[in-house]
Amino acid sequence: MNISEIAKLAGVSPSAVSRYLNNGYLSVEKKEAIRKVIQETGYRPLVQAQILRTRKTRTVGVILPKIDSFSISNVVAGIDAVLEKKGFQILLADTHNLSDKELDYLDTFDDQRVDGIILIGTVFTPKHIAALKKSRVPVVVVGQQLAGVSCVYHDDYHAFYDMTKLVLDKGCRRLGYIGALPQDRAVGQERSRAYCDALLDAGMEDQGTHMVTADFTIASGRKKAQELLERFGPLDAMICATDTMAVGALQYLKSQGIRVPEDIRLTGQGGADLCEVTSPTITTIRYFYEDCGANAAALLLDRLENPETPDKEIKLGYTIVENESTK
Asked: Which of 3, 62, 160, 237 fits 172 for a cystine, CB–CB 3.0-4.6 Å?
């Protein structure tokens, strides 16, 4: 089968079939006639021929730090939900939190193998900035604010300011923070800055040094909770940059017979289901990850349809979910 044969069976012109296959405008009647013939014949267009003819792959490359993450998987779900409706497929590239791999995938995708790129960002080095500036396909960044690039990110600063204030309002006066690498602007810089500012505003700025840095794993959270207590303890509140860190911290506290929340209050970030199955359940910050992915996909589609569209930044809100670990 070819386009001309499909057109003859559907009673339309070959150009109408071409517009149908490329999501162009057609009347409802013609769309239905073509759809029915394609369904009955099992016709599938040759992808390589479409790419050569239109110079479009109908594919978007999504570069992510790790797939086995509650937040990342939800962002990807939001991206896919929007792109699938527009006839796009996504090509996932898992960097395993390796900065150099991000650069490799940016270069690979930029070689006209995809129509656009969504980068779920972590650390932006000068090499990253250079790669984004020279990209021949549009790029949207997720999870980080980056000047000169369309991006969708969360209000990390106010979220962690409010979380710190929550435990302060409960009477906690010896706080500690398990944070992330400072090279990560959102998770590392903004969240720790909010923690320190909340302490400063409470007249407790000396405790801004009660801070350790962990990886994004439960094991690291467990190890760093021990370090935090050994260096700055005893504490009556422990604030963690992520839910996985908080779960690890909870494991360590339990192993030492330290009761949560009776002896120490504990918080995380992410709104992961994991926080609902621990004992006690963990107070967390819920971001709107699927909305984040959906907004990023919409921004990219807009750039693909209107290449002259200026870069746009979208900052999303949050909600604090208070569970048993702070009550």
From this structure: 237
